[in-house]
Amino acid sequence: MNRNVGSGRGITRGMIPLLAIHAVNEYYRLPIKPPVTAGLIVANTLIYLRPGILHTLLPSIDQVWFNPRLIIRDRDLKRFFLSAFYHLGESHLVFNMMSLLWKGIQLETSMGSVEFASMVAELLAMSQGTTLLLAKSLFLFFDYEKAFKYEYSVGFSGVLFAMKVVLNSQSDNYTNVYGLMVPARHAAWAELILIQMFVPNVSFLGHLGGILAGILYLRLRGSYQGPDPLTTIIRGAMGILSWPLKFACNLFRLHRRRISGRGRVGGGGSRTGRSLTSGSWRCPACTYDNFDRLNVCEMCGTGRTDNNSNGLASSTRSSSNWSRSRNFSLEELRLRRIERFG
Fold it and tell me: What is the mean pLDDT of residues 140-144?
């Protein structure tokens, strides 16, 4: 949920480890692990904890409060985007991340990671923009100053409300919203009203902006075929960034395919003694690959029997070696190899 500044931090110890255990348990059970959902949960948690060098690199919460007047007056995009990733307390963070885990797993596994990442980015921009537009409109047309000038909010719940609208848009089932059974399509509206009634100091415009952003996303998504432009851009960027990694993997596989030494034993292909590649022939007794200039197997001493041996493979010595080698046991062949190569 989006919290206003008056709610305080409300830190409760030990909730983040419970969130981590729950998230790991859920991911362990999934055959496909959604990486974007995991990355969003980790990013929100690290921004809240601010460990090590992040404490000095990240702006403080006072610098990122979502306040419509400051965003418009200062053209402050930092407040516009980063305020969604900041939370007032541990309970605020864990509540939102539990909701993100449940919604993210369902949406990302059904849409794919690239399209899901594109959707989250669009919902973030649209929910924040809609909230800003609502506050400005109330101030201009109804002279309502509080939402525009004096409310400061943070939290990921605007995006979560938009995700709930997208997730339930095609559902004909009923769902439980804080003990009430309502149609899944209207669950976001029911939750908006119930939270406003029972949870103090929440941002009504922030949640309403999220719902309207979800509806707008569905309308825009249904107006054209194929992936949206942002999804195409993300796929292209990922392809460019992953190219060096693919090149390194292919290079590594190429090195692994190279044959070390003079030959190999028991490889694939024909075992009739014919040349596997130009300049080599396979021994019919031990399947060792020898150089073409050799007429006797370097491994077991068996004579060459193909038609490329310049007539030398049919000599009496080679024929006798071949006859004897056919009667060798595996243990005798092993001992001969050890004796020959030391």
Answer: 90
